[in-house]
Design goal:
There is one protein chain. It is built from 7 helices and 7 strands. The chain has a 7-stranded parallel sheet, sandwiched between helices. The chain starts with a strand and ends in a 16-residue tail after the last strand. Helix 1 packs across helix 7, helix 3 runs parallel beside helix 5 and helix 5 runs parallel beside helix 6. Strand 5, helix 6 and strand 6 form a beta-alpha-beta unit. The longest helix has 29 residues. This is SDR family NAD(P)-dependent oxidoreductase.
Length: 241
């Protein structure tokens, strides 16, 4: 059975992606994130649905720890055939490092974002890519907000600058490995996941990832589903005011 490793796995989109790959392709699901208790609950949900799943707790800013977690997933399941990278901030994260606008951005503000969104992705890919190239097959998908490129959102300059680096690298990486059986894609989400809009539901968005894996014809997918009169506002769960 093939295996998908979801880095930054959460109970909404991360779970939906794992469930989609299990349903459509019979995938095992390896879950990687910081909170062991949340991962354990997700594993229980998968197993109750008959899906083979396991948790590998790691913080993406601890690059050696992240590499070890993915190596453990490879050993446990035999291989990682699809890697999905999508860490997201928690309330404590945003309390520690609030969002910074473009005009206020400093080197000190952007470095932690680079650790999370870009350096962690490089470490994760470096762990699984050699095996994919050796097997001549594999898929790597990196997820970001649409502010990484397709949209301009000056209120979130630090994370968007880091995600723009991720986007640029993934597009270049796809060009580099396409002839070796590996497909790399960047998915930019302009959506409020779980907001009640049909096209913003996790299961609907998870279809994008399955299509990226099986169709392998586009290095970038831009999913836009924001209200017509959308004005940037931080999701309620991220508010610190």
């Amino acid at each position: 059975m093939p295996t998908i490793a979801i880095v930054g796995a959460g109970p909404q989109l991360g779970f939906a992606i794992g469930a989609k790959f299990a349903e459509k392709g019979g995938f095992n699901v390896a879950l990687v994130a910081r909170r062991a208790s949340q991962l354990a609950a997700m594993v229980d949900r998968f197993r109750s649905a008959g899906v083979s799943a396991a948790a590998f707790p790691a913080d993406v800013t601890d690059r050696p720890g992240l590499s070890k977690a993915l190596a453990a997933a490879e050993e446990h399941f035999g291989s990682v055939d699809v890697l999905e990278y999508s860490p997201a901030p928690t309330l404590p994260d945003l309390a520690e490092r609030p969002l910074v606008s473009a005009v206020d951005l400093t080197v000190e503000a952007v470095l932690p974002e680079l650790e999370t969104y870009f350096f962690g992705a490089v470490a994760a890919v470096r762990q699984v890519l050699p095996g994919m190239i050796e097997r001549g097959a594999g898929t790597i998908v990196g997820t970001s907000g649409a502010g990484s490129g397709p949209m301009v959102v000056p209120q979130v300059a630090g994370a968007n600058a880091a995600n723009a680096a991720l986007r640029n690298w993934l597009l270049a990486l796809n060009e580099s490995v396409a002839g070796r059986g590996v497909h790399v894609a960047h998915i930019a989400l302009g959506a409020q996941i779980g907001s009640g809009r049909p096209d913003s539901e996790p299961d609907v968005i998870a279809d994008l990832y399955w299509k990226a894996h099986v169709e392998r014809d586009a290095p970038e997918v831009f999913h836009y589903d924001l209200p017509e009169a959308f004005e940037f506002q931080l999701a309620d769960k991220f508010r610190t005011d």
